[in-house]
Amino acid sequence: MIHPYARRCFLLFGLMGMLFLLTTAFTPKKSTDVNPAPTQNALIDSVAVGKQLAQKYCQTCHLFPEPSLADQKTWRTSLLPNMGLRLGLKDAGKNPYAELAAEDERILRKLNVYPETALLSREEWSYIVRYYEKEAPAEPLPQKAHAPISEQLPQFKALGITLSETPVPQTTLLKYNKNTSQLYVGDGRNEVYVVDSAFQLTSLWSVDSPPVDVDFPKNAKPRLLTVGSFKPSDQPRGRLITLDTATTPTTIFIDSLPRPVQFTVADLNQDGKEDVLFCGFGHNAGKLFWYDGFVPTNEHVLKALPGARKVEIRDFNNDKKPDIMVLMAQAWEGVSIFYNQGNGNFREKTVLQFPPAYGVSYIESADFNNDGFPDILLTNGDNWDYSAVPKNYHGIRIYLNDGKDNFREAWFFPLHGTSKALARDFDNDGDLDIAAISFYTDLERPQQGFVYLSNKGKLNFEAFSTPEAAAGKWLTMEAADFDKDGDIDLVLGSYFHNVGELSKLIFKGILSFPQLLVLTNQQK
């Protein structure tokens, strides 16, 4: 059962995802200190009280948010007003229902996200406000020192690709079908392109909403997942469809999904039939769930919370049963492994947990130290939320496995806005390198929207970027041997919300904005 506070605090710092998926900013009323000019001792006492109250009201919903997570202005003008609204203080910020569709408002009221009755007194709230305003840094904390990033990428040849005559690239999906040597490209304008190994268009479908995932079953048509709404919404309008012929373009397979961002297929209960597992990212409402035999009436909910971002199925404990690793975003940020107990039952172990505003964005397992146990490669950098300021804790991390699925952070590379990282042996030297992309562009260093990290051994990496990466905001990435020459290439997909975002880069002298950036590996 979900804790009674949980529904009120889900998106205190919520991430918009995926998908990669977006929240809208707001301008709250200025906060005012209810107590006039306290003495120094009184201020110290009130700050201590404020911390205790913050721990009381926040830790029931997520890890305690330390003041250092954001600067004073961000706390004062954005985070605290949002927190106050979720604690039932109606005048803490602007009306949260003002710009919502009627159905979204109905769902929020049913969830009691913004309580009608305040959960704390006005005096208690003033202590919490004073604590964060006093203890937060005046400015966002600077990035930690890291290895220099070369602005040349000698191992790869870069080429921008545009598939449609649109002024604003909006790539939402990249997935390679190795059986047909075709790349599937999803677009925010509700289209799916298929290109061959020369990146020439071979097929095109129009669908109901932005595509976010696809798989390629044997002897069957591709199955495509659409998100329902790329913008934040709690309306369950996602679909799993099949891509048919030009005369019958799509067939609805499963509908009414809660803003899904990923699906994967496996026989989870080992009954000989395929099951389907969904990341229902949602917004305020969402869930991680699976359908036994692809039948919606045979639903099994693993986690009844929003924010399921990425899953991976593998046998983590070597008992010959498929387990599930999931990355959870939104307020409940962390990584869990669901161990298969047989007969469709799972036991959850939380292996990593992070504070809100951490902005987790992607995860995959890989054995970095060759000890036979899966480690975790994780990115955090989702920053389109209530605290859209540079964060020194955003970047790429490796967590090493002790052999019992206990993970410790062993390596960190700071990178603003990191959205995804892939571990592959790009230079064919027997170890894992890393390719990473950033969606939230650092305008001072836009070329660092892509970073290639060449493994030099013992978790030492040499960093490279390319000037061509400055021409996009990279939301998606796929790795495969596109040109069939024996090494792994990369394709990056760019997503801009509107022309206004392009203008920021135009002022930097960037005039061309391809949908895709192809990085052809020259290693051979």
Automatic annotation (TrEMBL):
Keywords: Signal. It comes from the Bacteria. GO terms for molecular function: electron transfer activity; heme binding. It holds the Pfam family FG-GAP_3. InterPro entries: Cyt_c-like_dom_sf (IPR036909), FG-GAP (IPR013517), Integrin_alpha_N (IPR028994). Coiled coil: none annotated. Gene3D superfamilies: Integrin alpha, N-terminal. This is VCBS repeat-containing protein. It comes from Runella slithyformis (strain ATCC 29530 / DSM 19594 / LMG 11500 / NCIMB 11436 / LSU 4). The lineage of its organism: Bacteria, Pseudomonadati, Bacteroidota, Cytophagia, Cytophagales.
